[in-house]
Amino acid sequence: MTSARPAAEFSWFGALCDDDYEQLGVVRSDLRSSWEHCRDIVLSAERGGFDNILLPSGYALGIDTVSFASSIAPLTSRMKLLVAVRCGEVWAPQLARQLATLNLTLGGRLTINIISSDMPGETLDGAARYRRTLEVMTAVRTLMRGERLDLDGEFHSLHLDPPRITIENPVDPSFYFGGLSNEARDVAAAGADVYLMWPDTEDMIAETIDDLRSRVARHGRSLRFGYRCHVVVRESEAAALRAAEHLVAAVDDEEGARIRARSLDSQSTGVRRQAELRESAAGDGFAEPHLWTGIGRARSGCGAAIVGTPRQVADKINRYRDMGIDAFILSGYPHRDECDRFSRDVLPLLGNG
Question: Is residue 279 part of a domain?
């Protein structure tokens, strides 16, 4: 019997950014980012009952996010798409027009993951990047609502009417946004709808939630909380531990460092915190029960996994739900296999209908 918790949003991860392996660091041609492979992950997630799927964005790796989302949209019927966009890659008014068109194609099932990283070939001070990000969020939200935009900012001076598509089909887009620095938290409080966190100890998560609630209250807004994490689910705890160790068995320290360094945001506050979490973990890699940091040896960004049986994984997720988190973006390796396993063995335990 599941507890009577409010419904949560459970999302999977679409590996558009060349992040799919059977063992981390060992490239398999059939798991590389492609239209066919990423299509299959999305359709597996929809069949499995997930509410949403993150379509990540990376310049040097994989395939383009908005193009892929536009092509997969007609093949889905129920699940939302969480489309990642990097602020600055596309002129804000055109981005609003693109996203409004995509939302129309999806019948209103678009959600947007705002990314505040450097552009390829650019190095911009972190505080400045976040100021630019808030300007882009403001411009895109205003235009997608079908409202006139008058913005005189540090990076954008925009005075224009909205495009016809947003006048005739106005929408208030849901922005998912993450970042651990003070500047990132301020942007989330001012302009995001869902604040995404990477894995951390429950005490640190509680502190972060309390801090963001205080910041958002000063804006007279509300904010939901999300959690981005990997999962390793097996029929027994011993089998889950073996699967976790197998996942990183081919990665030595040098290769792990190379993989972590290739991301555009490899020096961010959030990435540094993932390294601290890994370094502070016990000798077996566990930062706390069922939260394993070993996966972070070969990843930049989200660097821990919930490891255990279906019941143990569900119980850990429900602990986060009791803390106030109601949006989860989960992933596992290979992504399609772990998606099917999680949807079959864990989703029914989460009491989401």
Answer: no
Cα–Cα distance measured from residue 218 to residue 164, given in angstroms and rounded to the nearest whole number: 34
Q: Name the residue range of residue 160's domain.
A: 9-231+309-349
45 contacts: CB under 8 Å, gap ≥ 6: 12, 14, 53, 79, 339, 343
Q: What is the pLDDT of residue 258?
A: 61
pLDDT (tens digit, 9 = 90+) per residue, 201-235? 999 999 999 999 999 999 999 999 999 999 999 99
Does some domain include residue 253?
A: no
Both tokens assigned to 73: 């949209």
- Within 8 A by CB and 6+ apart from 118, the residues are 124, 129, 264, 265
- Residue 3 has phi, psi (to 5 degrees) of -75, 160
Helix (H) or strand (E) holding 176: strand 175-178
- Look at the chain and report how many structural domains it folds into: 1
What pLDDT score was predicted for residue 334? 97
Residue 234: CB atoms within 10 Å = 19
Helix (H) or strand (E) holding 298: none
Q: Which residue type is seen at 29?
A: S
Contact criterion met (CB below 8 Å) for 209 and 226: no
Fill in the DSSP letter of residue 29: G
User: Is residue 266 assigned to a domain?
Assistant: no
Residue 334 preceded by cis peptide, ω within 30 = yes
The identity of residue 208, as a single letter, is T
* CATH code, 139: 3.20.20.30
How many Å apart are CA 254 and CA 105, to the nearest integer? Answer: 45
Q: How far apart are CA 343 and CA 244, in angstroms?
A: 19
**Residue pair 48/65 in contact by the 8 Å Cβ criterion:** no
3-state secondary structure (DSSP) of residue 162: coil
Task: Indicate the burial class of 261 (C-beta count within 10 angstroms; 0-12, 13-18, 19 or more).
Answer: exposed
Q: Is the CB of residue 5 less than 8 Å from the CB of residue 321?
A: yes
Q: Which two tokens stand for residue 63?
A: 């395939």
What does the DSSP assignment read for 189-204?
A: HHH-SEEEE----HHH
Asked whether residue 295 is assigned to any structural domain, the reply reads no
Contact partners, residue 60, CB within 8 Å, separation at least 6: 120, 262
Q: Which residue has the tokens 């509300």?
A: 222
Amino acid at residue number 349: L
The 10 Å Cβ neighbour count of residue 7 is 12
